[in-house]
Design brief:
Two copies of one chain form a homodimer.
Chain A lengths: L2 H15 L1 E3 H8 L3 H13 L3 E4 L2 E4 L7 H4 L5 H10 L7 E5 L3 H8 L7 E5 L2 H6 L6 E5 L2 E4 L4 E3 L1 H8 L3 E6 L3 E3 L3 E4 L2 H12 L1 E8 L10 E4 L6 E4 L4 H8 L4 E3 L2
Parallel strand pairs in A: 4-5, 4-9, 5-6, 9-12, 12-14, 14-15
Antiparallel strand pairs in A: 1-3, 2-3, 7-8, 10-11, 11-13
Helix pairs in contact in A: 2-3, 5-6, 8-9
The structure holds a DNA duplex (30 and 30 nucleotides).
DNA sequence: TATTTCTTTGCATGTTTGTGCCTCCTTGTT
DNA sequence: AACAAGGAGGCACAAACATGCAAAGAAATA
């Protein structure tokens, strides 16, 4: 693995996990701790990360847990959410899973909205505490803390007894040919199930997730009804529209 | 846990709770008091907090009357929680329902705690997001927003398949003769069920809830194993002890 | 291709940092 | 005044670190 490649990986890991421990990186990247230390030192002097004893921290807002992570207002996500709002109407049964983009959407739901929201994500449920006319149904399970959703057999079985008009799916990776994928198989299973019990499926994706792939396939992209993106090239747009997906990009 | 991370956590706690006790922080963050003292000293010299004997205070605007009252309230709950911590050990299966006192307790659980927490309250689940060695099992249901707990038939049925070593019950009303009661029958049902699947039951009550009653009975007081209170008169204490309850009031 | 030069990496070395424990001192409370 | 709780400073140890050096590759040049 090239040095530059490795350092980029380190940056990605720091951004994703908000902190890294040098010895940990050494094992994950299969190089000596000395090399990692040299990398961290270099990245720190470039100002990309903040070096601390025994590891490094992400620069910028000192965030650590999920609840504070949501506070970072992201204009892109907010714009996506605004577009998605057009597809949400009163008296729908919505199924919403985890992810910061979905959470942003829930925050932007009008307080006057009437309907039902089914979710396996505690933060989503809490964000709806002021929506007096929305009935919130939580699906239980084992809490997966990294993405703050309930997963497992209990979650799966609970979904067996439900249905929804619109599933708002949180996306990690999407590729027009490979489909929608995610790094954790347990999440893939639940998302697939959720899609199968919903009449329509809507997904919001930021550009950095377009045309990326990871280990576990959720479903092909043509399971989506609506795909909401930032501006994309016309040919990419066509690629999705050919599959019958309504793509909203402006 | 990284030093910087820990110090940031301390800052967050100080800002949240306006005052901290060194020995409490030691437990919550699972490091020695010496380390905490060093942290506080450092943060004080940075001017982020104000170091005082036995702990630290939040810097900034002097406390107003209203928030002072709020603080005293919190302090009571925090004290109750500290006493309750003695009954919680590694590798237990805890069942924790809703309520601000229970939430306070969860915030004060040591980060190093190992075990399982079953809960029907999304805020409780979220408060455990940093406890890496605690498996959180959420019980689903219909979210009752007023007290932020999941209730209903799904909740009841999920509880049928579980058991716990210790149930930490949130209390609204308690009277030595009438028993434990609550204004909502749906909550009473779930609490009763929770008590029935747990080996021991612990409850924390502030004085304003002692000797009060409301419509729906959860169970008689003798279903409690431990009752943690503020200081109470000896005769009230005897009243409970006569029922075989361990009462902790100091 | 062969040779030189430069970069990257891992290892060995002493050094520094972070933490817990201990002892003795200080502070606050009866 | 007596006593407990909290704190300061020193010690010890392990983990993390910087530095120098040599081997192994790359890249460049002849």
């Amino acid at each position: 693995m090239l040095k530059q490649e490795r350092q980029q990986t380190i940056i990605d890991i720091v951004n994703e996990e908000h902190k890294v421990i040098a010895s940990d990186l050494s094992r994950r990247l299969s190089v000596s701790e000395d090399t990692i230390r040299r990398d961290l030192k270099e990245l720190d002097s470039q100002g990309v990360i903040k070096r601390v004893h025994s590891g490094a921290l992400r620069k910028g807002p000192p965030v650590q847990d999920f609840s504070t992570r949501q506070e970072i207002f992201n204009e892109t996500k907010s714009n996506l959410a605004n577009k998605a709002l057009h597809y949400i109407e009163d008296d729908m049964v919505l199924l919403i899973d985890g992810g910061t983009t979905n959470l942003q959407l829930v925050h932007q739901l009008p307080l006057s909205l009437k309907g039902t929201v089914i979710t396996n994500s505690p933060p989503i449920a809490m964000a709806l505490s002021n929506h007096t006319d929305v009935e919130v149904i939580m699906i239980g399970g084992t809490l997966f803390k990294q993405s703050m959703v309930n997963l497992g057999i209990d979650t799966y079985e609970a979904l067996n007894t439900m249905r929804a008009d619109l599933y708002i799916m949180g996306i990690y990776n999407i590729d027009p040919e490979i489909g929608i994928s995610i790094p954790r198989s347990s999440e893939a299973l639940i998302k697939r199930k959720m899609a199968s019990i919903s009449t329509e499926v809507l997904a919001m994706v930021t550009n950095d997730k377009l045309d990326t792939v990871s280990n576990h396939i959720v479903c092909p992209t043509d399971h989506l009804t609506y795909l909401i993106t930032e501006n994309v090239h016309a040919d990419i747009k066509r690629l999705y529209e050919k599959q019958g997906i309504t793509i909203i990009d402006q």
